Amino acid sequence: NVNIASRDVICGISASGSAAYVASALKYARQLGCYTIVVSCNPRAAVGNDADCFIAAEVGPEILTGSTRLKAGTATKMILNMLTTGAFILYGKVYKNLMIDVKPLNKKLVKRCHRIISTICDIDETAADQLFERSKKDVKTALLMHMFNLDCKQAKECLQEHKGLLRDAINTLTATRHSPEPQFSGKIENIPADIAKLMVGRSWKPECPVPLKDLRYVTVTHWGFDDMVHTGHLIVHATLSQEFLDIFAELFAAHFPIEHMDIIDRYDANDERSMAANNSSAFCYRTNTTYPSIFSNHSYGIAIDINPLINPYVRDSLVLPAGGKAYLDRTQPHQGIITGTPDNPCYRAFTSRGYEWGGNAWTDRVDYQHFSKQIRDIES
Questions:
Q1: What letters, b where the CB count within 10 A reaches 16 and e where it falls short, cover 3-19?
Q2: CA 75/CA 140 separation, integer angstroms
Q3: Helices of type H across the chain
Q4: For residue range 202-235, what is the model confidence (pLDDT) as tens digits?
Q5: Do residues 377 and 239 make contact, with C-beta atoms less than 8 angstroms apart?
Q6: What percent of the chain stands above pLDDT 70?
Q7: Where residue 177 falls among pLDDT bands split at 50, 70, 90?
Q8: Percent of the chain, pLDDT > 90?
Q9: Mean pLDDT over residues 163-173, rounded?
Q10: Which of 33, 40, 31, 34 is nearest to 12 (CA)?
Q11: Are strands 370-372 and 356-357 parallel, antiparallel or unpaired?
């Protein structure tokens, strides 16, 4: 009734490897020319001998003899999750790490569609909602419409030509369409009321050495690790705000990638969480990491950390964030790496304007992510 054919993959599951009906089904599948997989918790199971792929999870004896719903069942479920997730990805159901074939069958799923579009297109949920409606409520159509400035009909035809595979459609459109080179954009504002509300009690407190009126909300476009243009936000001291705008215009022109850039309040003003997410941020009221009795320059809005996961803080055996240990070899060409050489766009953009780089500023530690001016630079 299921019309099995040679193009199919048949997966047999038997914890002990002795289920006769599994062996029979696999034998029949091989006769049809199907690719066969066996998942078992017995590495010596005979049923795996003739399979194209034999996956054996050695979990050891069950705590209740013969109760394979325990360790064997759990291990098998994990393996099947991996197989089906891989199939989802290969079949085009996933873009980046998001499931894009969502069917908007109820309000919850409609909201999920909005979030997916908002995340991939880097737009707010209101704009995502409008785009979703114009796409006739199809996520993949909406994404193509936004990425390549297509109308709904053009986007749907393109997807149809590529059998619904979004990535293939993107690759073709990228290769065949001439898009104008993206231009940098940025602006400087007084701290908006909603941002100030978010900051108070988190990144800014009454004892902070600078008042909110002396800070500015800077919005810039930047290249991401996905080679697409994103919009980032920073809080910096008003005196340096135009300088920051000029620096990020230079980084944009150099195509220097920054994975995430948002105010640290999006991470509850928790520096470790922000760093672990590789989020680039500037202002945050806190003490100095090395000398806790004094304010950090971040408290004045005169310091910034760029791609902190790729460019960690190191003092003896301490590495912050902990995930930064994977990037201690500074000779590797990691995306967004900062090296103290004139050919590094980030190093050049900041140091040419008098910023101190934490990678060579001190003898007892290195802080590859960190650029800072001095307090005297903002004193009138």
A1: eeeeeeebbbebbebeb
A2: 34
A3: 20-31, 71-90, 107-121, 125-134, 139-148, 152-161, 166-176, 193-199, 241-253, 271-276, 345-351
A4: 999 999 999 999 999 999 999 999 888 999 999 9
A5: yes
A6: 98
A7: low
A8: 75
A9: 90
A10: 40
A11: antiparallel
Tokens of 180: 């104008």
How far, in whole angstroms, is CA 217 from its chain's centroid? 23
Q: Could you tell me which of 257, 264, 362, 371 has the C-alpha nearest to residue 314?
A: 362
pLDDT digits (tens, 9 = 90+) for 109-123: 999 999 999 999 988
Q: Compute the average pLDDT of residues 139-166.
A: 92
Cα–Cα dist 180/173, whole Å = 14
In this structure, the number of other CB atoms found within 10 A of the CB of residue 300 comes to 25
Residue 29: how many other CB atoms lie within 10 Å: 22
121-142 pLDDT, tens per residue?
988 888 899 999 999 999 999 9
Q: Of the candidates 234, 345, 239, which has an alpha carbon nearest to the alpha carbon of residue 280?
A: 234
Tokens matching residue 366: 């290195």
pLDDT at 380: 64
For every residue of 44-95, DSSP letters joined together read T-GGGTT-SEEEE------SSTT-TTTHHHHHHHHHHHHHHHHHHHHTT-EE
d(CA 152, CA 274): 38
pTM strictly above 0.85: no
What is the pLDDT confidence band of residue 178, given thresholds at 50, 70 and 90? low
The CA distance from 343 to 325, in Å, is 24
The answer for residues whose C-beta is within 8 angstroms of residue 237's C-beta and 6 or more apart is: 210, 214, 215, 216, 283, 300, 301, 302, 378
- Token pair 């001016």 is found at 373
CB 114 within 8 A of CB 132: yes
Q: From CA 288, how far away is CA 364, in angstroms rounded? A: 14
DSSP state of 348: H
Cα–Cα distance, 80 to 74 (Å, whole number): 10
Of 5, 3, 1, which is closest to residue 33 (Cα–Cα)? 5
